[in-house]
Amino acid sequence: DIQMTQSPSTLSAYVGDRVTITCRASQSVNSWLAWYQQKPGKAPKRLIYKASSLASGVPSRFSGSGSGTEFTLTISSLQPDDFATYYCQQYKSYFLYTFGQGTKIEIK
Amino acid sequence: QVQLVQSGAEVKKPGASVKVSCKASEYTFTGYYNWVRQAPGQGLEWMGWINPNTGATNYAQKFQGWVTMTKDTSISTVYMDLSRLTSDDTAVYYCVYASGTDSAFDIWGQGTMVTVSS
Question: Cβ contact (<8 Å) for B110 and A102?
Fold first, then answer.
């Protein structure tokens, strides 16, 4: 199984900060990496797919990068609506998808 | 864009089974319908997928033997049946559509809370 590890688990930041979350895969997933945002009581929402492609309707302050085993999600200027939990997901093999454990962004 | 509407919350006793439905606003014969669950306060766990055209399924190893995913194309609905429930199965269950091989999980249902309690 491919294990996905996110860091940090929790992040405290101010509105306007530039924020970066890292996701590491236990083996290469090429660019088959997605990022999701989840707010309390809501379903996750896809932000990024294929490591760096922005999903439709997602603000341009979100960006993704990386390939192989190391990936990042960057929010260029944190907005009040961005305080949420973020998950990475590998989908290299459609016989086994795995998620990271999540990163919660809190207001500082 | 496809919308997914799931059935309502369920309360089950240990050992029982639960069947959650997921109705698509427009049923497509491409892509895959996945099921993902989330225990209270925990992360996301992928359970498996069903091909909406062929009905072929693929289950995560953990769930093999006790999850069944089916479809009824006549009513644009897919189902997830989980048997031999324990308290560890208490979770929100999401139906998720992946439109293509590179799209990841595009569209999520609203989730169905399943509570297992004696």
Answer: no
Q: Do B94 and A98 touch (CB under 8 A)?
A: no
Render pLDDT for A3-16 as a digit per residue (tens, 0 to 9): 999 999 999 999 99
Reduced to 3 DSSP states, what percent helix, strand and coil does chain A have, rounded to the nearest 5? 5, 55, 45
Structure tokens at B68: 């069944």
Q: Hey, is the C-beta of A86 within 8 angstroms of any chain B C-beta?
A: no
Burial (CB < 10 A; 0-12, 13-18, 19+), residue B116, is: buried
The SS3 assignment for B28 reads coil
With bands split at pLDDT 50, 70 and 90, how would you rate the model's confidence at B43? very high
**Chain A residues touching residue B32 (CB < 8 angstroms):** 94
